[in-house]
Amino acid sequence: MSEPAPAAPIRPASPASVPPDAAAAPTKAPARAGIVILALALGGFTIGTTEFSAMSLVPYFSVGLGISEATAAHVISAYALGVVVGAPLIAVLAARVDRRMLLVALMSLYGIANLISAVTPTYELMLIARFAAGLPHGAYFGVASLMAASLVPRNRRTTAVARIMIGLTIATIVGVPLNVVLGQGIGWRAGFVLSAALAFVTVAAIWVFAQRGTGPRSTASPLRELAALGNRQVLLALLTGAVAFGGFFAIYTYVASTLLTITRVAPGMVPWYFLLFGVGMTIGTMLAGWAADRAQTPTIFGIMVFAVVLYGSFGLVAESPALLAVFVTLVGMTGCLSTPVQARLMDVAGEAQTMAAAMNHAAFNVANAAGPWVASIFIAAGYPFTVAGWVGVAMALAGMVVFALAVLDEKRRGLFIADQAS
User: Fold this and answer.
1) Distinct helix (H) and strand (E) counts, the chain
2) A single Gene Ontology molecular function, please (predicted)?
3) What pTM, to 2 d.p., does this model score?
4) Could you tell me which CATH number the domain at 15-412 has?
């Protein structure tokens, strides 16, 4: 049990609140930290380019494989399922693997799976290839976040994690449009070839720049990683992301339909609105990293409060192209929630760092499936596409309740986990 909190105005962190890697964190960032984090962010760029552009390529590979678009959409679901399955499985099986070697292996698998996607002749093989491509997704981001955090002082680790995620957000600005242009101009297979090439470039960058012997801890083991699934604080943090982030994906999914049927913009304008999503995500991620390093709990609550206020205005701005452009940029900024949640998981996971970090991205893929599905129920019942905004409000409010329970449980147990910036 934790010792009672002293009466001093500033309470020291409980030993349970400090992740095992934190004790070894440097007091200042090593000279090579920047280039290593850049190499890791390249992996985020690769995954973001592939994940988001695959949705845009559905109409093209459906024709190429001789299937309907509805059937082709199952390929996207197969990828998401791979993320959910791969995150815990790899975390357990690779508990004792050196992080540098694990990242190289994960990104190599990602490249191979995308190459297979590019040459597959059948729908069935495409399903298998996309499932395989999803397997390393969560584990890569989790392990990369742990490596980045280990390279910088504790009070800058959320910013380091944010820089990994910046690779993903920049992908929505640069990588996705490029992949779509390739898919439209050369053929959908070219898009997956580009993703594979980026993956192998990432492999080379990590191999060259990431230092050898970067973990895991000598105490790491499959059983300790599995223990994360029994840690109430870990589960509440994961549930916060899985619920609260669903609204973001609900709106993201139905923005194109809103633009075409309510806002009535020209079809050629639609990609520019999605580019604004990416701009917002990039800005929001950097701001969230900076803020969470100073006050983690208020940052998480603040993002969800902002989402509640913002999402409810979807119907009010839908008829104005200019207001909707501002709206989607701000919605993109709420996509930064994963960054402080990732940092919190590092705090609460104890010895199960890899499992908790990897499961964060599995949780957000659950949100990716849940948000649009809930919105689709109301749309099928006759509500306009903008009902996705109210779905977002409800899910953000539910996320706030879950996180409030986590904070209350933290205080009741005397685990002063959050806001340990110094």
Assistant:
1) 18, 0
2) transmembrane transporter activity
3) 0.74
4) 1.20.1250.20
